[in-house]
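Appendix B. Extra example for self-study. Work through it before the problem class; the solution is given directly after the inputs so you can check yourself.
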Amino acid sequence: MQVSRMKNVAKATKQHPDELDVLHQKIEELEKSEARYKRTVEALKKSEEYFRAITQNSSDIILIVNKIGTITYVNPSIERFLGYKPEELIGKSGFNFIVPTDIPRAIYDFGRAILTKDIIIPNSFRVRHKDGSEHVLEGVGNNLLDNSIVAGFVMNVRDITDRRKVEEELGIYRKHLEDMVEERTSELAEMNSQLLIELTERKRVEEAVRKSEERYRLLADNAHDVIWIVGMDMRLIYISPSVLRALGFSVEESMGRTMNEAFTPASFEMVTQVFAEEMAKEASSQYDLNRSRILEIEMFHRDGSIIPFEVHYSFLRGADGRPTGILAIARDITERKRAEDEKRHREKLQSSLEIAGAICHEMNQPMQIISGYVELLMKDLSGNHPLYERLGAILTQIERMSTITARLMTIKNYETKNYMGKGKILDIDKSSGNGGE
Amino acid sequence: MDDEVLIIDLLKTALSSAGYTVLTAGSAEEAMEILKRESVMVMFLDLNLPGMNGLDLCKKIRKKNTIGIIFAITGYSNFYGLLDCRTVGFDDFFIKPVKLDVLLKSVQEAFERLDRWAISDYDLA
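Solution. Structure tokens for the complete assembly:
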């Protein structure tokens, strides 16, 4: 076409030089116009391609129906969602693909929509996939029936089946969560009220225990007896302040002393042995949980003297019954010991005196015989007989002996005297009986 | 009455020498036998004896003889012993060894007392 126009131009130029100029001008204008057109068409083409590309490749479904619902355009995305190619759908009624139960509503909504103009209407329908499965499409519709180019109802929809499914699942899950929360909440509420009760009770018990502890501590702290607790490792855990009065050591000082510092070696050995025996009983599983042992032990006073104690030992036990410590309640028995010693001494003396009395009785018999026969002999002799005086001496000594035995038999309070530096003997002269000296 | 032969011999010798009639017994039972036959108004009883002791013997004698003078003579003495002796009816209480003169004097006094009471005027047997 370009070549033929060039041939015509050359021919005309030769025939009409003025016209030729006009023609040239016209041609030039035409050429310019054509160029503009080309550019416009080019631009439009590009634009169209651009929109087509967008439409064709849109992930959403773009659907245009006419006023009776016949599909006039659908982009290829439809296949991805519903399994149909656009050409299978164009010319068919959109209502064919809606799930029957949703059709009345779809018709009603569509009827209303085509009466509106330039309003974007959101909606959603259940649509049948080519494979028969049900999909949920949601979208917006725009009535462009009056638009001469489009002349249709444009719908922009997307498949929200998965989203709906997820939403439903989420809903179920949320419901479940809510139920759980509610359940938990009621459980929590119950637990909470129980906790509150428990807490109150615990506080009350705690208070009672604290008071009881205070009371016991007060008792322990003010006891005359020395009370101590040692752990199973034999370390001192508690000792009552009475230790100061009993042993001269303060509580702090006592805490720093070891058992073999506190006890005499013999007592330490005894206590250790008894502990071993008791632990063996614990292991044998045949034992009385509340048993206790009473031991007489000796402990060192700060001044170095030895103080005798009667100690009541028992195990402290945990909730499981196993021993957790040893409780000792010790009483200073110095006075008692002294009284006991005194009593023992008195008893010993009493029996000695009884023996002495019995001996005296036995002695008195022969003394009676000797003194009696001496008296008889002296009666037979005259006062100037050489033997009379000697018999008199015997009688005097018998009398002396009789005085001693008589005193010995009536002694109640006694005193002793040293006997040649080898011990003590009864001092008969200083001892007294019921008959006086 | 005494379980010790030498004591019996001693007292018998001393009292006989003083002119008294002396009956002797080595036990409470023997003494009871004699008292069944004889009227004895002055008696010396040892307290500590095998078998029946002097206190019980005295108690028995006193049931029949409330006038006779009974002396306890013992090697063992205490205040309670004296009380016991008085309770069962002893008139006096001597602790061995006792001087023969003391015994003779008390026997003499006893007979004087019995004479004063003129007990021979009564039939005590």
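Self-check: Chain A has four domains: 2-53, 58-159, 223-332, 339-433. If your reasoning did not lead you there, revisit section 3.
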